[in-house]
Design goal:
This is Complex 1 LYR protein domain-containing protein. By secondary structure, this protein is mainly alpha-helical. The chain has helices at 2-14, 21-54.
């Protein structure tokens, strides 16, 4: 989806001038959380599709 790519590009662009190491660590941790969340949503969608296809 093009909107999600723009969302992440804008997130990097908004924080491009950040120099505080603690703030950068916080932003990286937030990014890691978002990656895990997206992986979970993808897995859930895949699971629901397989369940619908084979168990109903």
């Amino acid at each position: 989806d093009g909107r999600s790519i723009l969302f992440f590009l804008n997130a990097f662009w908004r924080n491009r001038n950040e120099t505080d190491p603690e703030k950068i660590k916080t932003l990286i941790a937030k990014g890691d959380f978002i990656v895990k969340e997206l992986e979970t949503l993808y897995y859930l969608r895949k699971y629901r599709t397989l369940k619908q296809r084979y168990y109903q």
